[in-house]
UniProtKB/TrEMBL annotation:
One of its GO terms (biological process) is tail-anchored membrane protein insertion into ER membrane. It comes from Clydaea vesicula. GO terms for cellular component: GET complex. Residues 142-281 form the ArsA/GET3 Anion-transporting ATPase-like domain. GO terms for molecular function: ATP binding; ATP hydrolysis activity. SUPFAM superfamilies: P-loop containing nucleoside triphosphate hydrolases (SSF52540). This is Golgi to ER traffic- protein. Belongs to the arsA ATPase family. InterPro entries: ArsA/GET3_ATPase-like, ATPase_ArsA/GET3, P-loop_NTPase.
Length: 289
């Protein structure tokens, strides 16, 4: 059996995510949200990246309040800055004793500010009626660890968390859904190089340890040299990429591996994003040789 034939055993796209209509929480990114919006009644896209990459990508200002994306009737987006969550909560409390407790929590548990931000987002999302929620930025390992600690047993700071109304309960409820593969899945994104492949494996192991489903990988920035090309750098890099792409297929034979080309321009603006997002569900036509 040739490599190309073996590659085709698993659909090389994210179409499986669209077909799985039970999914509620999807870690895939903005371009995936666009395709989901064509098949779901309503989609909410959330970014926790302080750089506000959604606003840059769509050319539209987003905030912590869900806003309809220009050009769509059922796709909304919001941006949350996790680094400001703790300070916002302290400002809201405006209470010396409460602020002292919050300060203790912030220093006691790495990533807790993100967990608190996440909890607040979940409270908001639960009060809305979206078919599915897409996270443009994956939660960091410290935040996942904090969430996991809150769920299992009684952590040393239990008395502190009891003072944060609803946080533990919300995170427990969300985490239960995150561990349900019928409701949640995580799409890994990498490039075909050693370090990226290594980091992807670490991420997959981490997700497995938290019992979060992952069975899709997007490989970005692949070169597809034209036949007869004599660009030495392109050919050398293509050969290297092919080596690591082979390893990806060997390591993750039960994963859907979506291969995306290196582009000659940025994907910015609604129309460009719509066009690019098609490649997530319709495999790129150029053969990778």
């Amino acid at each position: 059996m040739s490599d190309d034939e073996s590659y085709e055993e698993m659909e090389p796209s994210l179409k499986n995510i669209i077909d799985q209509t039970s999914l509620k929480w999807i870690f895939v990114g903005g371009k995936g949200a666009v395709q989901l919006s064509y098949h779901r009644e309503s989609v909410l896209l959330i970014s926790t990246d302080p750089a506000h990459n959604l606003s840059d990508a769509f050319g539209q200002k987003f905030s912590k309040t869900p806003t309809l994306v220009n050009g769509f009737t059922n796709l909304s987006a919001m941006e949350i800055d996790p680094t400001s969550s703790l300070q916002d909560l302290m400002d809201e409390k405006n209470d010396g004793a409460s602020n002292e407790i919050l300060g203790e929590i912030a220093h006691a548990i790495p990533g807790i500010d993100e967990a608190m931000s996440f909890s607040e987002v979940m409270k908001l999302v639960k009060s809305m009626d979206y078919s599915c929620i897409v996270f443009d930025t994956a939660p960091t390992a410290p935040m996942l660890s904090s969430m996991s600690g809150l769920m299992g047993g009684a952590p040393p700071t239990e008395d502190m968390f009891q003072k944060l109304e609803g946080m533990r309960e919300t995170i427990q409820e969300v985490n239960k859904q995150f561990q349900d593969p019928s409701k949640t899945t995580f799409v890994c994104v990498c490039i075909s190089e050693f370090l990226s492949l290594y980091e992807t494996e670490r991420m997959i192991q981490e997700l497995n340890s938290f019992h979060i489903d992952t069975h899709n990988i997007i490989v970005n920035q692949l070169l597809f040299p034209k036949e007869g090309s004599n660009c030495e750098q392109c050919l050398v890099r293509t050969k290297m990429q092919r080596k690591y792409l082979d390893q990806i297929h060997d390591l993750y034979e039960d994963f859907n591996v979506c291969k995306l080309p290196l582009l000659t321009s940025e994907v910015r603006g609604v129309e460009a994003i719509k066009k690019f997002s098609k490649m997530l569900v319709e495999p790129y036509s150029a053969e990778y040789k």
